[in-house]
Design brief:
The chain has one domain (about 30-195, about 205-370): Neuraminidase (6 Propeller). It is about 0% helix and about 40% strand. It has strands at about 35-40, 50-55, 70-75, 85-90, 95-100, 115-120, 130, 145-150, 155-160, 175, 180-190, 205-215, 225-240, 245, 250-255, 260-265, 270, 285-290, 295-300, 310, 315-320, 325-335, 350-355, 360-365, 370. It is globular. The two termini are about 15 Å apart.
């Protein structure tokens, strides 16, 4: 499926979507992307749905092939949230989908079981780390604290990591991988989140955190957690019937050991200074940009030109941000499914830069991996 749909900061927009007066029309990464091609379905043999994490493998080892795309599934075959238990690999060249890993939903070592989230990375050593934010019935009424799962390059479950500092690991990971050690950043959205009441919205609580996990990776051995530090906290989080939980979802690397975080409820991108070295929390950080094209910002990645790219949860746009200038550069409609209002709302989650240019993303409404190029 090929679509030629481009919306820059003051270019083509769907009806009803207005460019803010302050937007600047300037060269952008998005401006060079004009096609959106479906790569493959992400549904494995067991029927799991709702693709979340998207990570390009940096290594060829075991089942992993450098350049292949690893995807996690959050929902089971009945489309119940927080019950997905599978990781799948997509070969972009052949469009082949192969299973990478599957674990029991009732995994005793992981509090509450397994529901695989956007918190995922593939290390240079071939180890895969992925977060779990589980449910027993597809709602937050039965939410568990979850865990981080460690898989070998062959897809075997090698370890389960739990901690008081792990509760609903949710957002995509930012990673500094040194080979023999690594620093992983992930968000938690499970603290104090209750179920939505019979009618109306669940209360918002300001308890979401971002954690730095330091790993030691011995030669020939599996990674071992060395420390966990809360580098940011106080972000809003909220149980939601439609998307399970709303909270900080995207994390990307910044200059001088900082990180960027997408604050979904605050509708903003913030910077956490000294995240790589700090020993105390920076709270909710320093605002980089807010509102404008942002509509509940979710996954966040670093682009080759130094900008950031974020997907929206409340429409089908991806937004490019110049973090140094603290401005939004461009927005492009990447999902125009009008079955949702606004178009594409609730369809976008995982995001990864493609090695040969463009970026991969998932469309949850049709359970597919797509390449923007």
């Amino acid at each position: 499926m090929i679509r030629a749909l481009l919306a820059s900061a003051i270019g083509l927009l769907l009806p009803g979507a207005l460019a803010p007066a302050w937007a600047v029309d300037s060269p952008s990464y998005l401006a060079g992307l004009h096609r959106h091609s479906t790569v493959a379905s992400t549904v494995p043999a067991n029927g799991d749905q709702n693709p979340y994490a998207v990570v390009v493998s940096p290594v060829t080892q075991g089942k992993l092939v450098a350049g292949d795309v690893l995807v996690s599934n959050f929902n089971d075959a009945s489309n119940l949230q927080g019950l997905g238990t599978t990781l799948v690999l997509v070969d972009p060249a052949t469009q082949a989908l192969t299973p990478f890993a599957s674990v029991p939903q009732r995994l005793d070592r992981c509090p509450g079981g397994v529901g695989l989230t956007t918190a995922m990375t593939v290390l240079k050593s071939g180890w895969v780390v992925v977060g779990s934010l589980p449910s027993r019935d597809g709602t937050t009424a039965t939410k568990g604290d979850g865990c981080l799962l460690l898989f070998s390059a062959d897809g075997h479950l090698a370890d389960v990591w739990t901690s008081p500092r792990i509760n609903g690991p949710w957002g995509n990971m930012a990673v500094i991988d040194r080979g023999g050690s690594a620093s992983l950043f992930f968000s938690n959205t499970g603290y104090g989140v209750g179920a939505p009441p019979g009618s109306g919205d669940a209360p918002m609580v300001s308890k979401a955190t971002v954690v730095r996990l330091e790993l030691t990776i011995p030669a020939g051995g599996k990674p071992v957690p060395a420390s966990m530090t809360v580098v940011a906290d106080g972000f809003g989080e909220q149980a939601d019937r439609g998307v399970f939980i709303i909270g900080p979802t995207g994390i990307a690397l910044g200059p001088n050991g900082s990180i960027y975080v997408s604050d979904a409820i605050g509708n903003s991108i913030v910077q956490i200074p000294d995240a790589l070295t700090r020993t105390t929390s920076a709270g909710t950080g320093v605002e980089v940009t807010k509102d404008g094209f942002l509509r509940r910002p979710l996954a966040l990645v670093n682009l080759p030109n130094g900008d950031l790219l974020v997907t929206n949860g409340l429409n089908g746009q991806a937004v490019e941000i110049d973090p140094a200038a603290r401005r939004q550069v461009a927005a492009q409609w990447i999902d125009v499914d009008r079955a949702q209002q606004p178009a594409g709302s609730g369809d976008l989650f995982g995001l990864a830069v493609a090695p040969k240019g463009g970026f991969y993303y998932v469309e949850d409404d049709v359970n597919t991996l797509v390449l923007a190029h």
